[in-house]
Each structure stands twice: as structure tokens, then as C-alpha cells.
Amino acid sequence: MVGCARSGMHGRGKSAQGRVGGGQPGGWRLRMVCGAVVATTATGCSSAPQVVPVPTFAPSAPTSTSAPPASETGSLLPADCAQLLGQDELSALFGLPMDTVMVQMVQGTPSPSVGRLERMTCTYTAAGVAAPPPRGVVLRMTVGAYRDTAAAHSQHERNVADEQPGSSSPVRPALGAASATLLHRDAENLLLTASDAVTLDLDLPPRPAPLPPTDLLLDLARRVLARLAPSPSDVAAPVSP
Predict the structure, then answer these.
(1) CATH number for the domain whose boundaries are 75-234
(2) How many whole angstroms separate alpha carbon 177 and alpha carbon 94?
């Protein structure tokens, strides 16, 4: 296109140059058209295509619809007992009608001398007109969080020593990677466990249940520890009720 503009100028001779130099409208139009053609074809005539950078934007953080992990809330234990063992879940395990098990939580205090950071006690009670006798406490659960694994397992051994007088010889049932001790006192059954930096103690008062006391306690422990342990695969999976 640039060569075409030059040939047009040579064909017109001096008169054409005079009109352009004299400021005639036709000459200005010719110069403007040629300039526009050169501008629009400059990119096409270049040896390599011009690269135009595409703007990018940092992706926004996704909005979470689930509850944050315990470490993000500043607490190592859940805010309530239902997050570890729900009333309806316990009703199914004990063969009780739905909505007949109530739970009460007591928040414990830290104990720096033994490395305990938090403690919670959950007391589950069968109540209401639909609950069959005997009514009353069906399970006591105490959970403690410690500064490290060593502190938790040391406390576990102290708990076993405190509960052992008046009980039968301790039994060490298999419970995945957790340490577990089973004690029997009269008709009462206790399972004391430690896994990672937490302890879990289950106290099962005497009452009729679909499962033998030892099987029921181990099933409960698997459920709770799987919800407490950083790696649930370290604890054997519970049997669905």
C-alpha cells in the first residue's frame, strides 16, 4: 500500500506536487488516506506478530460453608458434646426411643501442672415419658486436651492408677493407635484412653443395652476418637448401629 501511494505521486508529475504543496483539499485527503493505510497495515507487514498481554486477576478465596477446624477457633475441643457424640446416635446405640436422651456439658478448667489445656465432661441421661426404665445417667464422657502427646499419655496412666483400686484387673483392649485400659467395678464399666494429645474417659453405668458393655464402650471410643484425632485413620472405624 505504501508503494501504491508513491506511484500515484510520480504519475501526476510536478503539477500534482504543486497541488499538494499548495494546500489543495484533494492533496490533504490523499496524504491522510495514505497515512491511515500505513498505520493499519503496519502490524500486518511486521516480521513477527505483536503480542498484547492479557490482564490476569488473582482468584478470590472461596467462601467456606462448613465450620472451621478447632485450631482456627482457638479451641482444641468442640464447643458442645453433640459434635463428638449426638443424643440420637447414643439413643440408637442404647436401643432407646429417639429424643429421649439429654446431654449436659460442664466445661473444665486448664491445669498447667499436668499440661492440660482444656477439659469437657458430657453427661447423657435417659429422660422423658418415652424412655424405658431404668431412667437416669446412661453415659459419662470426659475429654481432655493437652499440650503434647507425652502429657496426655502421662495423665492417662495417672487416671488408670486412680481408678484401679476396687476394680478388677485392668484389660488393655486393642483400639487402633490409642492407648486403652478397661476397668470393671461392681456393675460399672470404665474405658480410659489416650490418643495423640487428648484423653477420653468413658464411664458406663449398669443398664440394659443391645451390646455387651465392653463392645459398647469400644464402639463409643472409636466414634469419639475418630472425631478428635488429627488423623482419623489411626483409629479403627466404628460399627454402624
Answers:
(1) 3.40.1000
(2) 26
